[in-house]
Amino acid sequence: MIKLRSAFATGLLAASLPVAAGAFELKSEPKIAFIYASTVQDGGWNEAIDKGRAAVSEELGLDIAVAENIPEEATRLRAAIDLYVQRGYNIIVGTTYGYSEAMSEAAQAYPDVAFFNASGVHNGENMESFYARTYEAWYLAGIAAAEASESGKIGMLAGFPVGVVNWDVNGFARGAQSVKPGIDTTVVYTNSWWDPVKEGQVSEAILDQNADVIATDLSAASALNAAEERGAGAIGYQIDMSAAAPEHILTSVVFNWDAYLTPRIKAVIDGSWEPEEWGWFEGLESGVVDLAPFGPSVSEETKAKIAEAKAQIIAGELQPFAGPLMARDGGEVVAAGEVLPDDALWTMDFFVDGITGTMPAGE
């Protein structure tokens, strides 16, 4: 039976369906396949997951099949899954939210196959979706940005106004405000996950507005290229993007998916895997999301502030969305002494106070 978690893109609340108790059992020797919606060398999301795949392969001593450019279309994905199952593959990893429905149907059709899906919404007896509390790392990146800024204005590029993007934007702003309360964060949504030309143009426009640090929540390095050319601080995402801005990089928010994939796939193989009822959703303490090494301009004092905040987040002493939390429109989102609950994270559709920009209407 499949369980629907809060929807990644639509923000719909989950329907409560029970996940069976007890560990999943493979019926044959493990054969693993990863399926990607585009090339694995995309410079960001897929590349980060594929580094995790390579680490799993090395750690477990198993060859792992890879299918690239399988579009987010149910019939195309299902055909790829069916073919893998027919060939004896019994652990299948999807890599995008857009695979959610087809993978859910496949999991029900193939109960002896273990399914995982990055940023998916479904979970069940033989299926687990996974994502990370990226806003925690973006909070730390916000500290780096604020400490580097002399103008008091920083900027960020984002894709679509969905919960997992909006929490990155707000986490970044909150981190910056924690060290410079009056700092302004300009945010621009590109309404695309991949448009290097547009991202470069938007970055130039933000820098023209006197921002002296720019971050990207996207896979292309265009924002970092623009920052390097203009002498502004740069913050990347998904992988270490320092090569795009070697002189002015501050850090990158990075995924280390092997920290999740290796133990979970090992558990499938040894018969101890029990899919998380609502999917796997952890933060800095897991090591799955973190900051890349700092750039040459980041001071030891800034590094110490970030290290302290990181330790506090891991210890549960610091919550990026603890109250009092005010939305930009003046409304109180979280009262003092309370913390924004997880279901409100997935449906986040507001800017915190201190952000300049327009949030497009949700899809």
From TrEMBL:
SUPFAM superfamilies: Periplasmic binding protein-like I (SSF53822). Residues 31-314 form the ABC transporter substrate-binding protein PnrA-like domain. It comes from Alloyangia mangrovi. Residues 1-21 form the signal peptide. CDD domains: PBP1_BMP-like. Gene3D superfamilies: 3.40.50.2300. GO terms for cellular component: plasma membrane. The lineage of its organism: Bacteria, Pseudomonadati, Pseudomonadota, Alphaproteobacteria, Rhodobacterales. Keywords: Signal. This is BMP family ABC transporter substrate-binding protein. Pfam families: Bmp.
